[in-house]
Design a protein that fits this description.
Structural class: mainly alpha
Strand content: under 5%
Number of helices: 5
Radius of gyration: 24 Å
Order of helices and strands: HHHHH
Oligomer: single chain
């Protein structure tokens, strides 16, 4: 090998190392952002499911520890809270969750609660479920 080939090999190794480091950093940062967004979405969905349960049956409120700025006293209050979340969800939720949530808002029911929960579950974890309201209800 002559000096030119050694120099080219050396420069290629350096460039390859820089590119590999850049790609690794970029992919790790992207993964961290996705994990953060997933956690935020999960928290929003969790709150939304609690509000939905209370909108269907205000007596469910006793099962939850809620930190509300203004106390929701009626099912209608919870439905209004859900509407606020609905408008926020347009930013971060996929179409299927938005449409299921809208359907729930227009006609709150146990069946639509489960439909929304299933869509949220698919969004967060990519998992389908065959559970229905009777399977998950504890009272």
């Amino acid at each position: 090998m002559n000096y030119t080939q050694i120099t080219i090999s050396f420069i290629s190794a350096i460039i390859g190392g820089v590119i590999a480091t850049f790609l690794k950093t970029f992919l790790e940062k992207r993964k961290d952002i996705e994990l953060s967004l997933n956690r935020i979405t999960e928290d929003k969905y969790r709150s939304l499911l609690v509000f939905m349960a209370c909108a269907i049956d205000i007596n469910k409120k006793r099962f939850f520890t809620l930190s509300e700025q203004i106390e929701n006293k009626t099912s209608e209050d919870y439905l209004n809270q859900i509407k606020e979340y609905y408008y926020h969800s347009i930013l971060y939720s996929p179409d299927n969750v938005i449409l299921a949530l809208k359907e729930f808002i227009l006609n709150p029911s146990k069946e639509l609660y489960v439909k929304v929960a299933k869509e949220m579950r698919k969004d967060l974890w990519g998992r389908k479920t065959k559970l229905d309201y009777n399977d998950i209800s504890i009272n």
